């Protein structure tokens, strides 16, 4: 396959993209080659650009720097040690730090690839790897919330509920039968309500800026998907018996507060979280929920690969409603 050329987009040396023709990537023994049917963008794709550019000088310096980590498509080739997949399988994959999704073909580790159940489209599935998994891990592992109805009903706040991660966090929390307060912009209040949120607050209103629940609830958990908020605002909204903020956008202040609260064994805590998927466990759970009709991807927009630059700019603007998707 390596002699065949494909269309792809690479970082052009700044945060912009440049269209190129490059060789279809080669796989090693534990990898699958996927013909991409849909890829979704995440803020990490542009936020991590500088770090990726730096690391590429030392690791895989000869391979093109193609962004996008989340793809769905069809397996066209498998490495010698691959057992779970064969050519023709419809899959979804997390390409991890290497990226490669803004192209016609992408290479994924077998361990981070999952079969797409019948009835789950490539567009719906490709939203899941980073955004869906982050929402799932934040709720379950970081905040310790049961989503199978086995635990007590919790009060949960999801900030930026109209975004890629927030939309899944609201739906997953409701699958677990929890009470959900959500923040988003005024144009998305109805949409977020339709995802199941019990109360929705405009983040630009005084109540939204203060993260207050309209019904006066305090939160057992906050899944924080928006920009930094001072700890004092979180603290006054957390349950006195023990509330936790899972911070998906942690800056230095969040890390410092995390350390202080841990040292003092405080009941109200903040936990910075960064997703590092090791296997396909969460992806499979999310795909099953999707196949059962319990979870969906809100799609902001779909862009042809030739127009990936437009999708990229839209993502950087930071006002997507759901996922931005690119299709070869
Ligand atoms: N730690 C991790 O492992 C991890 C994983 C995934 C994502 N993240 C981070 O989590 C954040 C969210 O990611 P995402 O993919 O959901 O982003 P996204 O899709 O780009 O989020 C855009 C949405 O957020 C809304 N929004 C922006 N500021 C808001 C605020 N202060 N309050 C309420 N809503 C607000 C926007 O609404 P308007 O258009 O109305 O402004 C828009 O609908 C990003 O910073 C991302 O880097 C971290």
UniProtKB/TrEMBL annotation:
InterPro entries: ADH-like_N, Chloroplast_QOR, ER, GroES-like_sf, NAD(P)-bd_dom_sf. Residues 13-326 form the Enoyl reductase (ER) domain. GO terms for molecular function: oxidoreductase activity. SMART domains: PKS_ER (SM00829). PANTHER family: ZINC-TYPE ALCOHOL DEHYDROGENASE-LIKE PROTEIN C16A3.02C. This is Enoyl reductase (ER) domain-containing protein.
């Amino acid at each position: 396959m390596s002699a065949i050329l494909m269309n792809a987009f690479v970082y052009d040396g700044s945060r912009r993209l440049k269209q190129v023709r490059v060789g279809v990537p080669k796989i090693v023994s534990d990898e699958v080659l996927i013909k991409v049917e849909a890829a979704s963008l995440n803020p990490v794709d542009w936020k991590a650009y500088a770090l990726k550019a730096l690391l590429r000088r030392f690791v895989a310096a000869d391979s093109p720097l193609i962004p996008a980590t989340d793809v769905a498509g069809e397996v066209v080739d498998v490495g010698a040690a691959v057992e779970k997949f064969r050519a023709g399988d419809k899959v979804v994959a997390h390409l991890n730090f290497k990226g490669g999704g803004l192209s016609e073909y992408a290479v994924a580790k077998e361990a981070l690839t999952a079969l797409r159940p019948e009835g789950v489209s490539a567009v719906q599935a490709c939203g899941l790897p980073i955004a869906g998994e982050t929402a799932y891990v934040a709720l379950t592992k970081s905040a310790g919330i049961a989503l199978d109805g086995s635990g007590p009903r919790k009060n949960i706040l999801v900030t930026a509920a109209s975004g890629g991660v927030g939309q899944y966090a609201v739906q997953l929390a409701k699958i677990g039968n929890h009470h959900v307060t959500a923040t988003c912009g005024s144009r998305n209040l109805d949409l977020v309500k339709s995802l199941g949120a019990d109360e929705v607050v405009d983040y630009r209103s005084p109540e939204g800026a203060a993260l207050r629940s309209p019904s006066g609830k305090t939160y057992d958990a906050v899944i924080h998907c928006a920009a930094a908020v001072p700890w004092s605002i979180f603290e006054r909204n957390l349950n006195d018996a023990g509330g936790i903020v899972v911070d998906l956008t942690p800056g230095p202040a969040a890390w410092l507060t995390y350390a202080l609260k841990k040292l003092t064994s405080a009941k109200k805590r903040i936990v910075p979280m960064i997703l590092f998927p090791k296997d396909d466990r969460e992806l499979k759970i999310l795909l099953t929920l999707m196949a059962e009709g319990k979870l969906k991807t809100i799609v902001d927009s779909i862009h042809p690969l030739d127009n990936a630059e437009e999708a990229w700019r839209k993502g950087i603007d930071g006002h997507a409603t759901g996922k931005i998707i690119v299709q070869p």
